[in-house]
Amino acid sequence: MIERRVANDLRQALGQSPAVALLGPRQVGKTTLALDIGDERPSVYLDLEAPSHRAKLAEPELYLAGHAHALVILDEVHRAPELFQSLRGLIDRGRRMGLRTGRFLLLGFASVDLLKQSGESLAGRIAYLEMCPVDGLEVPVGEVERLWIRGGFPDSYLAASDRISQSWRQDFIRTYLERDVPLFGPRIPAETLRRLWTMLAHRQSGLLNASDLARALGVDGKTVASYLDLLVDLLLVRRLEPWHANIGKRLVKSPRLYIRDSGLVHTLLGLGTREDVLGHPVAGASWEGFVIETLIATAPAGTQANFYRTAAGAEVDLVLTLPGRKPWAIEIKRSLSPSVERGFHHACEDLDPERRILVYPGTEAYPQAEGITVMPLHEAGRALLQAA
Fold first, then answer.
1. 37 to 14, 31, 103, 190, 365: CA distances (angstroms)
2. In the chain, which residues fall in CATH 1.10.10.10?
3. CA-to-CA separations, 57 to 47, 52, 53, 65, 82, in angstroms, rounded
4. How big is the CA angle at 26 (ends 179 and 383), to the nearest 5 degrees?
């Protein structure tokens, strides 16, 4: 069992809100965590993909009213958006009875439809939490390399061999393309979406060029934008926006794109082992995306994540603006003897960051010139956790 950091956030949210939505990709561990929390208190679990469980909700208000003093866990809730209106009435009646917190735990994909439904019907009654794949601070320090290679989906990371892990990820991608993605939008040809996903893997950490992607796929720019929106909404792709301020510099305006799980990047490119990954040009960009996901996951709530780049070449891989504080400038290198380029120093002159951090795959932290601290990933993540 991997101890997930979001577990404490979920317990806290259930103690403060009548409903909590735990959103994230498939197979990330939402159901396992929900059942563990359900074991700590009276609870009822309903899987809305199971016909027998859906039958119990033919009259949802009647059934759920009978479990007013239990935590009701509704898995795959995106399959029954009509439930949200019933939940609103049950929550309001429960409040009048003194039942103000911990009533419903909703599990599902982070789709626009789900957020819209719950946002419209349960405004002021629901808290949202995102559960991502396992990050670099949720495994022992010596396991970070394996986590990077295999990715953070528990079944992939914990597989008995690289071959089994790779096979699991291939099946995961196929399931998303053929079954899950069509649930959340207009019918998208699975092969077209696979090609887009593979192209994004080849361009990991690259700037978005929608017209270039559209030409390669044989579709128009609006279609590419809608495909990307869907992958972002499903927490499979991160669109890292550029940092903007009125500083008199020409700043890059296009976002950077990352496939959020490094294991999926490697599988889409046919890279099954550590040697395969290290011998491929994507290794540096894949490591960068892996580090970014971990640092964003460990940053305090309300932190804004961007990158910084000017037309003149000043650049920072990750700018984290913590609430009420100056930004942290973070550069990411795959080398064991890392150094920053001149553009990082120029960017720091513009940003005036609180901290300058260079993350590398080593094990020891040490200072460099001009206020830069070289840190392994786990130490950079802990610094962010302590900054909360």
1. 10, 10, 13, 36, 37
2. 141-386
3. 11, 9, 7, 11, 11
4. 150
| Prediction pTM value | 0.92
Pair of tokens at residue 310:
């000017």
CA angle at residue 303 from 301 to 309, to 5 degrees? 160
Yes or no: domain 141-386 corresponds to CATH 1.10.10.10: yes
Name the DSSP class of 48: T
Is 34 in contact with 11 (CB distance < 8 Å)? no
Other CB atoms within 10 A of residue 360 CB: 23
Q: Are the C-beta atoms of 201 and 268 separated by less than 8 Å?
A: yes
Element (H, E) at 359: strand 355-360
One CATH from 3.40.50.720, 3.40.50.300, 3.30.420.140, 3.80.30.20 for 6-130: 3.40.50.300
Q: Please give the chain's pLDDT, 388 residues, in tens.
A: 789 999 999 999 999 999 999 999 989 999 999 999 999 999 999 999 999 999 999 999 999 999 999 999 999 988 887 888 889 999 999 999 999 999 999 998 766 556 666 666 788 889 999 999 999 999 999 999 999 999 999 999 999 999 999 999 999 999 988 888 777 666 678 888 899 999 999 999 999 999 999 999 988 888 899 889 888 988 899 999 999 876 667 888 999 999 999 999 999 999 999 999 999 999 999 999 999 999 999 999 999 999 999 988 899 999 999 999 999 999 999 999 999 999 999 999 999 999 999 999 999 999 999 999 999 999 999 999 999 7
The encoded tokens of residue 25 equal 């990709």
Write the single-letter amino acid at 128: Y
Rounded distance between C-alpha atoms, residue 372 and residue 223, angstroms: 43
Residue from 190, 235, 195, 229 nearest 213 by CA:
195
Sign of CA dihedral 287, 290, 295, 296: positive
Q: Between helices 190-202 and 210-217, what is the axis angle to 10°?
A: 130
